[in-house]
Amino acid sequence: MHTDLVAALDIGGTKIAGALVDGDGAILVRAQRPTPAREDGETVMGAVEAVLGELTASPLWTRVHSVGIGSAGPVDASAGTVSPVNVPGWRGFPLVARVRAVTGELPVELIGDGVAITAAEHWQGAARGHDNALCMVVSTGVGGGLVLNGRLHPGPTGNAGHIGHISVDLDGDLCPCGARGCVERIASGPHIARRALDNGWRPGPDGDTTAAAVAAAARAGDPAALAAFDRAAQALAAGIAATATLVEIDIAVIGGGVGKAGDVLFAPLRRHLASYATLSFVQGLTVVPAQMGTDAGLVGAAAAALGRREGAAAAGV
Predict the structure, then answer these.
(1) Which residues lie below 8 Å from residue 258, measured CB to CB, with a gap of 6+?
(2) Contacts for 43-50 with beta carbons within 8 Å, 24 or more apart?
(3) b/e map 27-60, b = 16+ CB within 10 Å
(4) Collapsing DSSP states into helix, strand and coil, what is residue 56?
């Protein structure tokens, strides 16, 4: 039984979740608020403070030694700021300083949400036991993170492994990030649905045009739906193979809503990967679905806070 705990925050455009987490990754206390994403920055921070208020009110709070935050990005861990695309009131918002102020100046570790999910999958999920891994979230956007040499590799600003913005199509569509042909522009849920619709797929009577509906149609054999998933799988394969070639990962873990599509995604993905990951040192690369589910962001934020403490202890030795 670990006597010391960490506080974890998982901040996204829909919800702000908080938890007290022990050294084994068990969630002992939870708190949550909807994200007032359309409001000004102080209102959003008010929701964060409400979540933290519930956590600090717990009798277990006295055992908390640090705080981990996984936030929608971009984040800048070196500056302690966040600028989530889907929370316009936060641009260069000093989240780390504000959280420290609320928590009695505890140390705070900030990482991007893709990196947080990577930390969770490496600690307790599908990447467990792998020293070199890429973990991806494929949903409304495409994010990710890296584990290298057995350690989370967030990079100086906390965004390393952001595979969604590797370009895999030199003359592809313009991405909102400013580049062309990004993985996200092809493989995200909305773009899978858009491609299927453009090529003749029609939703059922319920009018559902999500990637999940396209996946259902693909499983039933709809050619436009199958082609949209095949194109997404090809983009993901190119991005994963490029990453593996650069840093020698041996496993890629895929989560998020699109990652739940099953064989409709993974069968063409593995086929395309074989044609992109061709060099001898990446041929053993495996691709698997994520295991951590909805708590991944919280567990990963906790892992980052625990890792910070271990690093500090090691540095003191």
Answers:
(1) 138, 139, 187, 188, 189, 192, 211, 232, 265
(2) 43/89, 44/87, 44/89, 44/90, 44/93, 45/93, 45/95, 45/98, 47/16, 48/9, 48/11, 48/16, 48/95, 48/98, 48/99, 49/102
(3) eebbbebebebeeebeebbebbbebbebbbebee
(4) helix
**pTM to 2 decimal places:** 0.91
Phi, psi angles (nearest 5°) of residue 85: -55, -40
Q: Which CATH class is domain 5-116+294-316?
A: alpha beta
For residue range 125-163, list pLDDT tens digits in order.
999 999 999 999 999 889 999 999 999 999 998 889 999
Burial 245-261 (b: 16+ CB within 10 A, else e): bebebbbbbbbbbbbbb
Rounded Cα distance between 272 and 283, Å, is 12
Q: What is the CATH architecture assignment of 129-291?
A: 2-Layer Sandwich (3.30)
Residue indicated by tokens 């966040």: 82
Which of 154, 135, 92, 126 shows the shortest CA–CA distance to 308? Answer: 154
**In the chain, which segments carry CATH 3.30.420.40?**
5-116+294-316, 129-291
Alpha helices in 27-83 (DSSP H): 41-56
